[in-house]
């Protein structure tokens, strides 16, 4: 069990340490220390068999200078603590940009300057290496007209005597916890060093870090498995060599410190384009440095980039919000479609979704993503029609710096890169030009991308879901869409039928949208039976999008609790003022289309024909429309056009 002596000048630090120790398997001596007695107290701890001491600032410096030789972990002030102190000082001084002086030992601080601009203060540091330089540093700060000083006990005491505002350099639970972690590692290293080398290697090989042990001359004696992987060298080729021959990037100043018995931790080292957080712990035996334990924690570059990309993706809204629960419909067609899409979710193959505008193609795409194993990863939606053809390639695949005039410095990641490990939804795929189609085909085949202006490829793991409101087979016949890409995209296919082919869903959606907009507008409205009947008979060529917008409109303008048939009839014709049945055909999954047309008549003949059929069917518009071969909406428009009476048998038709 590790035996650690914790020396602190303030009771608050002791209390924080006690809460940390409860979670540790270690014997810890808590000492409320003073600078006058710190060396004596440290010696007493050594005599009691404590392996390592934790201290900070002046007291840590005095222990090092004492020559006692006990391993020392110095508490460093974290960036969070520095930022909090700056904020507190600014609040205390009530000044727009106060001038703050940080005074203390050089090894106590992380990089201070970067926090000054963030908090809005002017920062100057007065860092020392010897206790004797502490008070002169305070005098220099006062002469430099600092608004407030920040330092330890000695600095605070002296500053108060001078009448200068001063804040105590507090250590939080985070910095103290880090010190205990380092102390435990040092104790472990010391204990292992006293045992046989083979036993030590068996232990360090289970570490998540790359661990290297050297003797006091810097010659490698142990090189664990993670070190082999990190530095691409077998242990048999590393042992017996100087550590700097394997890792030449180790700072010589850090090596000098650790050879003197000083611990170096949290330093950044880059080797073969991989960034490491490195810790160097001296092995002290009877007051002499007999070797060094080097531990390297790889900061995986790809993982860091992926984390940053994920944050960027979520900030930009590249997420799928909808699930199958958000797809409303009771028709057999929709139930069957949802069942099929749910099965597709468990597969990684490409999906091609076809259907008219407004049928909910992206809703299905998002639902498939959210039911898949990729649900916690990005969902990137791309409207191919909204991107000019000359920008489509660079937006999808990205570009390197200098790829073209106006290219951003450092280049840009493409949307496929943003979608890595997730799903990319290519809406209106029919609008992609032929060159873009070639690039997309290669991405699907090779599973990698090449940025514009680059000469190397990047592997990606992206599922593609494409959607179209056009008949791709017709485009293939016209030479506007590649047949090989079509078959690559159409591995799994979904055709979403228009509302007019699943009329039982119209009122389900109407009720859902009515509840939604009523809640938003703080209303409680419903549709009358006549209004519901009229809406269920309307063809809704804009599909769900048109229906949703229409419901929003009438719920907004209705002054009555019950929306009348007259209100619906009046505004439904404005929803699509042109004869959509003449403009749009129905897109079928087999590629065929059908356009509803009225049989050709002269206007006079058409008027006579409609009046005759209304008389024949006693004003039954459904029967009349069926015999004419048109929709009831088209019939109603013609009745209004010819000013035909809407009353038959005393009732409105």
Automatic annotation (TrEMBL):
Pfam families: AAA_lid_14 (PF25601), HTH_8 (PF02954), PrpR_N (PF06506), Sigma54_activat (PF00158). Keywords: ATP-binding, Nucleotide-binding, Transcription, Transcription regulation. Residues 327-556 form the Sigma-54 factor interaction domain. Signal peptide: none annotated. The keyword Cytoplasm does not apply. NCBIfam families: sensory_box. This is PAS domain S-box-containing protein.
């Amino acid at each position: 069990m590790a035996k650690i002596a914790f020396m602190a000048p303030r009771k608050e630090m002791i209390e924080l340490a006690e809460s940390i120790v409860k979670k540790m398997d270690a014997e810890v001596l808590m000492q409320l220390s003073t600078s006058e007695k710190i060396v004596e107290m440290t010696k007493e701890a050594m005599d009691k068999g404590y392996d390592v001491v934790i201290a900070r600032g002046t007291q840590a410096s005095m222990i090092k200078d004492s020559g006692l030789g006990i391993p020392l972990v110095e508490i460093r002030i974290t960036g969070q603590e520095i930022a909090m102190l700056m904020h507190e000082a600014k609040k205390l001084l009530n000044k727009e940009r106060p001038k703050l002086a940080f005074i203390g030992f050089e090894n106590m601080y992380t990089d201070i300057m970067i926090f000054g601009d963030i908090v809005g203060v002017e920062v100057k540091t007065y860092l020392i290496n010897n206790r004797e330089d502490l008070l002169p540093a305070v005098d220099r700060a006062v002469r430099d007209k600092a608004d407030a000083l920040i330092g330890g006990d000695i600095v605070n005491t002296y500053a108060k005597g001078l009448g200068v505002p001063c804040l105590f350099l507090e250590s939080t639970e985070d910095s103290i916890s880090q010190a205990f972690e380092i102390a435990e590692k040092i104790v472990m290293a010391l204990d292992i060093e006293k045992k046989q080398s083979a036993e030590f290697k068996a232990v360090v090989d289970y570490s998540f870090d790359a661990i290297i042990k050297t003797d006091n001359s810097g010659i490698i004696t142990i090189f664990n498995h993670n070190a082999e992987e990190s530095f691409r060298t077998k242990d048999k080729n590393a042992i017996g060599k100087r550590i700097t021959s394997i890792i030449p990037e180790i700072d010589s100043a850090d090596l000098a410190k650790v050879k003197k018995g000083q611990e170096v931790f949290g330093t950044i080292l880059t080797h073969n384009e991989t960034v490491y957080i490195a810790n160097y712990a001296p092995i002290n035996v009877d007051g002499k440095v007999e070797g060094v334990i080097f531990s390297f924690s790889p900061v995986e570059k790809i993982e860091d980039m992926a984390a940053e990309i994920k944050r960027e993706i979520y900030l930009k809204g590249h997420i799928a919000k909808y699930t199958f629960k958000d797809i409303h419909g009771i028709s057999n067609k929709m139930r069957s479609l949802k069942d099929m899409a749910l099965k597709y979710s468990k597969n990684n193959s490409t999906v091609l979704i076809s259907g008219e505008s407004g049928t909910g193609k992206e809703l299905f795409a998002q639902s498939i993503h959210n039911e898949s194993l990729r649900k916690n990863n990005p969902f990137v939606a791309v409207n191919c029609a909204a991107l000019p053809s000359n920008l489509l390639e660079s937006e999808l695949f990205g570009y390197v710096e200098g790829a073209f005039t106006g290219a951003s410095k450092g280049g840009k990641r493409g949307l496929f890169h943003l979608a890595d490990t997730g799903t990319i939804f290519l809406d209106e795929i029919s609008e992609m030009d032929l060159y873009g189609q070639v690039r997309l085909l290669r991405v699907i085949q090779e599973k990698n991308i090449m940025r514009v202006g680059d000469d190397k490829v990047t592997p990606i793991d992206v599922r593609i879901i494409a959607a179209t409101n056009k008949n791709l087979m017709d485009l293939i016949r016209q030479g506007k869409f590649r047949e090989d890409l079509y078959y690559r995209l159409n591995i799994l296919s979904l055709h979403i039928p228009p509302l007019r082919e699943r009329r039982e869903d119209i009122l389900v959606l109407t009720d859902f949208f009515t509840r939604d907009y009523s809640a938003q507008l703080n209303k409680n409205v419903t549709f009358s039976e006549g209004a519901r009947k009229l809406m269920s008979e309307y063809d809704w060529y804009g599909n769900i999008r048109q229906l949703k917008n229409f419901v929003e409109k009438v719920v907004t303008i209705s002054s009555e609790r019950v929306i009348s048939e007259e209100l619906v009839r009046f505004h439904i014709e404005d929803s699509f003022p042109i004869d959509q049945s003449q403009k749009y055909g129905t897109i079928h999954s087999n590629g065929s289309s059908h356009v509803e047309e009225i049989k050709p008549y002269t206007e006079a003949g058409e008027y006579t024909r409609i009046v005759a059929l209304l008389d024949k069917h006693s004003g039954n518009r459904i029967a009349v429309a069926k015999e004419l071969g048109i929709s009831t909406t088209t019939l109603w428009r013609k009745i209004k056009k010819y000013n035909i009476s809407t009353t038959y048998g005393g009732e409105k038709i």
